[in-house]
Amino acid sequence: MASRSLRIGLLPGDGIGREVIPAGRLVLETLSSTLPPLSFTFTTLPAGYSTFLETGTALPPKTVQTLRHECSAALFGAVSSPTKKVAGYSSPIVALRKQLDLYANVRPVKTVSTAPKPIDLVIVRENTEDLYVKEERTYDAPNGEGRVAEAIKRISERASHRIATMAGDIALRRQAIRARTGVQSIHSHPKVTITHKSNVLSQTDGLFRETARSALAPSRFAQLEIEEQIVDSMVYKLFRQPQTYDVIVAPNLYGDILSDGAAALVGSLGVVPSAN
Question: How far apart are CA 106 and CA 109, in angstroms?
């Protein structure tokens, strides 16, 4: 077997990121020692709020250039984003997703084998649009009663179609692995849950719902069970009966909230992984 070397960008960021990224590197180094054809090299790159305080930018252009042209993948730790407006600061992970078109955030949520209530689900979150396009403005109310803040919620057919397609593909792959390995599973068949709020947001979330349905309609997804869930009841059911979910697909904001909340079901936000 031909040897293969992968260059991994390490972005510890802030807070717990500086603890988990060295641990992640150790895992990869151990993996390469057990799989000799596969090896890793590493480069540590700056990003995060501490980088912003030091340099004036949370995501230096050099970091993006190195990732784009020199790295096979990256491990991103965490960022300590301020809760109030800080002039010049913008989330580096949001910027990185946009610049590299990392359109999907995939978070597996799985309990260990000894857990009394097993959970095994994946949340697939659209990563590039929704309210996270960050097109906002604040202006004085025409009637003189204070200020008004507005934000654009953008949902496109293209982004919705490709994220739903990815969710369907993940559900099929998960089922294929279950069938091939014979490992006991809480799921007997593949299922995708489309999460939205189209009962209120009929244009934006309505387009997401409609497009996701269309994306999962081809015959190659015929074995999938497709269901829908309004996002507020989705939160309730996710915490009450998480074992009933296999793959959940959602627009950016809902997916962000659901994936972080689901982390509490199996451990903590700082150690539950996700891939962009």
Answer: 10
Looking at residues 8-13, what average pLDDT do you find? 96
Q: How much is the pLDDT for 4?
A: 83
Q: How many CB atoms lie within 10 A of CB 271?
A: 12
**The predicted structure's pLDDT at residue 155:** 97
pTM: 0.87
What are the CA-CA distances from residue 245 to residues 138, 171, 211, 248, 262 (Å)?
39, 11, 21, 7, 11
Cβ atoms of 208 and 214 within 8 Å: the answer is no
Pairing type for strands 104-110 and 120-126 reads antiparallel
Rounding to the nearest 10 degrees, give the CA dihedral for residues 172, 177, 178, 184.
-150
* For range 92-97, the mean pLDDT: 89
Beta-carbon neighbour count of residue 82 at 10 Å? 10
> How many Å apart are CA 250 and CA 127, to the nearest integer?
10
At 5 the pLDDT is 87
